[in-house]
Amino acid sequence: MLTSLRHLENHIIQPRLENLFSRSRWRERYKERVDSYPDVRIFCDAPEDRFCQACELHRYCKYTVVLSGKLYDTNTMEIDDFMSHDKQRLKVGIVCRNRTEVYHKLKHFKYKLYQDCCTVMKDDGFQDEPLKDRVDRVFSQLEEDGWIRKQYRALEDYMKNADFFHEEKMD
């Protein structure tokens, strides 16, 4: 499963992430923060005339991006409990807010999909069954329930949103 996820990331997700970042004014430090935390919440606050913490340009910032969650290794998907309750709160403008949302969903899609698959396998109640039979059965059930189609559509939406930003910046 990890090999398939790595292929997905390397050939489909990563090129879009690189385009989103290279065509933005984000600072490397902001990107590293977004890359590191698997959970994001974005709040609309009272507007402030200040420097955006994503691009460091003077903007009318009315959004707070809250990054949180346990860090993880992007190759093994193993969770790192170091500073597991750490949160980053960053004040950003509308363009950086929208880009953050799109970038974050795409960046952490692989991890969230992996976590969902692990949960399904752990909770299916047939741990004594041979692994290949169990995987085939769970896969068929997920396909029948429409779960796989739902995940695929979510990824398609994330990719379209990333491509929209790509097109937006080139005009």
Structure description:
With 171 residues, this protein is an alpha+beta fold. Helix content is 57%, strand content 19%. The chain has six helices and five strands, in the order ααβββββαααα. It has helices at residues 2-22, 28-36, 94-107, 109-123, 131-145, 147-170; strands at residues 39-51, 58-68, 71-72, 79-80, 88-92. The strands form two sheets. The protein has a three-stranded antiparallel beta sheet with strand order 1-2-5, with helices on one face. The longest helix is centred in the C-terminal third of the chain and has 24 residues, at 147-170. The mean pLDDT is 89.
List keywords for this structure.
alpha+beta, 6 helices, 171 residues, 3-stranded antiparallel beta sheet, 5 strands
SSE layout and pairing:
Layout: H1 2-22, H2 28-36, E1 39-51, E2 58-68, E3 71-72, E4 79-80, E5 88-92, H3 94-107, H4 109-123, H5 131-145, H6 147-170
Antiparallel strand pairs: 1-2, 2-5, 3-4
Helix pairs in contact: 1-3, 1-6, 3-6
Biggest sheet strand order reads 1-2-5
Helix count, DSSP H or I runs of 4 or more residues: 6
Which series of helices and strands comes N to C?
HHEEEEEHHHH
Q: Report the helical percentage.
A: 55-70%
The major beta sheet can be summarized as: 3 strands, antiparallel
Q: By helix and strand content, what is the structural category?
A: alpha+beta
